[in-house]
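## Example record

The block below lists the input lines for one assembly entry, exactly as stored, with component labels intact.
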Amino acid sequence: MQFLATISSLPFYILATISIICALGMILNPNLVRAGFTLIGSFIGIAGLYFLLNANFVAVSQVLIYAVGIVLVIVFAVMLCSLKEEAHNIKESVFSSKARVTFAVLISSLVFAVLSFVIRSQDWQAIAKLTGAERQSSLVQLVDDKYLSQIGFLMLNKYILPFELVSVLLLIVLVGTILLSKKDIK
Amino acid sequence: MNSSYNVKAMNSKAVDLNLLSSFHPRETFAQRSALVQAFKFFILAVVWLSIIFVVAAGAGLTFAWKAPFVFNELMPTWFPAIDKQIFKNLADIHAYLAPTVVVATIIPVNALFMVLCERKFLSLLTVRIGPDAVGPNGGLQTLADALKLLFKEDTVPKNSDPILFFLAPALFFAPSMVVFLPLLAVAANRLGGFIYADLDISLIFILGFLSLGTMSLVMAGWASNNKYSLMGGLRAASQAISYEIPLVLAIISVIMLSGSVNLFEISEAQAGGILNWNLLGNGELPRILNLFASTNGNFFDGFVTLVYVILCVSLFLIFITASTAEVNRIPFDIPEAESELVSGFNTEFSGMKFALFFLAEYTNLFIASAIASILFLGGSHLPISIEAEQALYSALTNINISLPVIGTFNGMFEGLNFVWVITSVTLLVKIYLMFLVAIWVRATLPRLRQDQLMEFGWKYLIPLTLAILFLMAIILEYIKS
Amino acid sequence: MDWNLVSKILLPEFIILGAVLITILLSLIDKTKKYTGLVATFALFLAALVAAISTQGEEVTKILNSAFISDSLSRYLRVLIYGIAALIALAATKYIEKFESPAEYFPIFLTATLGAGFLAGVNDFLTLFIGLETLGLSAILLVSYSRKLQKSNESAIKYLLTAAVATGILLFAISLLYGITASTNFAQVASRIVQLESISLLSVPLKILISALLVGAIAFKLAAAPFHNWTPDVYYGAPTSSTLFLSVISKIAGFAVAIRVFGTVFHNEFLLPMLSIIAVLSIIVGNYVGIIQIISRGSVKKLLAYSSIAQSGYLLVALACLRLESVGSLLLYITIYAIMNTCAFACVIYFEQETGSDSVFDFAGWIQKKPMLTIIFSIALFNLAGLPFVPAGFIAKFFLFSTSFSSGLIYAPYLVIIALIGSVIALFYYLYLAKLMIVDEPSFALKQLETVEVVAVTEGTSKCGYSYDPARLTAMLSVGVLIIVSIFGMDYLQGVSEMAIYKIGV
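Predicted structure tokens for the full assembly:
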């Protein structure tokens, strides 16, 4: 059984490592295009984690929307920009790069420490026991054959207001984006 | 007369010099009738398809049935000291791996024939001979090409981004391989180990991961340090983004029609003859006859059905168009347009890297054809009635084969189910028919210009698909009630 | 689901949604482009009217699976938001014409208002998040509207980045809350938290963290210190009508969310000190930098931005006391504040239309050019300062401080004293600006204006296409409302706002 447990937790560690390494690469890479591509890798790693959690639809959405849709467009835009021409316009920060890195590492490790301390301070098992019935009714139904139709049902019933509001939001963001990016009318 | 004699003399001289042509005397197309050429092509296709099938099925059988048998039945008797549970786990792992192994074997073999098939069929359409030197009727040409590519020097351009340059072909190939898996569940009729390959949302899964390939095209274009490559990569990205929308919208209509996003279920819904295919309105076609029934006032019903069937057919056409653009085929192959961009994003790639691009492109085309045949052409079902098909299936289940060759292996074929042979062969043939259509399109249509492509996608295709989606939702409510 | 009830309750929102679509269509046609502003104004006014006269909100009704709640508070706030938004839209109609493609301003404006309107009746964390995004993203578009100007782009980017961080913080708080309660619904979350508290299952650090994250995210929307850093730059760089929108509608929506979340859903002993600290910091920072701004003769828009930070501080004092009376007076004060701020900004918009400048220095001696508007502007400033010149502002501030003082919170008196000191300091810059306009000699920009006008008249062209300038009309209307309210309706308004808070539903 030990063998099986090791084997079955192996994908988690692989995927987690991929996403963490890619995320780090995204931050540490000075080349913007490479950073964009590593970001895609990170997103795909997270999508794999969703697959492990049986959330197939969320995983595919993650790939379709984040990895392919958003980051690809970002990389596309970065490629078309020439940083060399703009470089002299960028003001150097008051702090040295070493100070900045130290500060960033300090802040992020502080945030990590606080969050992990807080999350570990809570007895989640007890809460899970208490809210178990509700979770059963709301989640376990989802992980069967009619998984996707359940999502559709929830979106058009329980969460219809946010769902429809999102459509309004997307419409107006589309209008605004075209407005901001279209060519100047002479 | 004199001059013709001279030519003949020169020809005979050439024969002497050219060793290859002495083995295979070249013949012009006119010397053989088109019918004979087509027949030769057919024979070639049958031979190659059976090779593909046997290789893939052999790999699948080895991992899905033989390995578990060996681990569960034989190994414990050979090594009684070791815990049985470990063998059971190993058997499970092998069963899980079966679809992956099939994919890993079928993709290269399949691509070999796809390239050959394209060249041969294209030469048929353009009244040429095509490759005929290597192997019988040129049947081993692509194998030779592949070997040649293997031994070519792997060049890396100056000032390129070496990591991305190395990664791009592999990352282009990887999604095609992943996307192949759910198709096997349809082909193998959800049998044995292949049920693990069947995702509940396989259609969306395929769409999502297929579009990942675009990323590596951009990566390849960027890494090459070549403006033509970069242009090719950017064109690939813009094209993929533009044509994914009509593709997905067309697929949404089909999802509404079938009520599922699982390829297997979509295929199941179309069982029982050509009339049940989604292409012809999923069994509603006979209601068109109401148009001609003068009584009962059923004219409306007939008319709605007519509109519905027209919508179904146009969905199929839109799907083919958009997926042709998605996989960068002529007439939408502007990312690698030779006349403008040398060869686009793969200009700088050589040897195995180029081969991987090539492999992945043909695999993507294969997958697109597979989705088209599953969504619209009845999937893995024969065009016969459900009863006949069931009878065929029941004849093929529970077959007992006992091989006298090796006595200890006898037990492994007990109670086997051979339905998967019918389903996978049917699907394979349908996919290749769709592929022939793609080649036909390639032989017929010229390449589009970049702005024409964008205009066609955004101004015509997307509004059209949106309108069809809207109409389809309304009509389906009426038709299904 | 009772769609009849839904359509009855959400009728104002449907009107605005229809207006969004109509304005988008109108903006496509050249001939009808100029009517988008009027359509938006009319639709918002109609929505406010419908929300005001509808009988919904008399009792607590939850619709759409408790995603939206219709009670007295949501009704009051929706009337306020839509009414003020109608005034802002009116003020923007002419001002926005100097930008490229002015017609599309109003669909975006309406959507932002719609998001704020949904936040007024938010009863689910998912609605809260989407509503905030609708408001925030549309507001970013409004801020970046004059895309030719670098300062506008700069402020839009700043706003976008800080808003993204704030959204991330909010989402983290929501996910932790969901982890505890397995629900996004306010009522379920509240009851579950009470249940968990009763058996003391919630760990103290978790409670502190969730409170801090929620307070931080909402304080960003309220532009309260120390989450105020985006405010001056964004207010300064944005088109003035967008600045007005941010300083009024965004703030009302933020307080709506704050009242709902802190008042009914998530409430513990760590929350009130946090709110108090934020209130004190806002008062200090807002007033201190406001004075620096007036001394260094910076931008009036920046001045009003800092003043709005300070005003957020006063409002947060009442929120930090979190009693029914104090929150009722918060509603009263935010109403008066919205009207006063609209009036002040409408004057700035008018000034900007005339001179193209918004620096404090250029306002000098405005009374000699436009005496009427100068007086209106001064009234608005007096009211913002809390002077009883037209008593509405004074009364509202008095109620705010007195209810907070007597709220029973141990340190409430100290908070009120700090707020009082702050408003005394604030008097300086409000009055300095008023003095500058009334007493001083006309500035160079104003003197130049004369010649331009002469040239315009001699060339036979009119600068103004409207028979009556919309921004001026807005200023007149809002000051009219202010005067009428302070003479006749203060008691009534106070009653309404107190009733609004008494019937709040969970």
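Residues 34-146 of chain B form one domain. Confidence is low (pLDDT under 50) at residues 1-10 of chain B.
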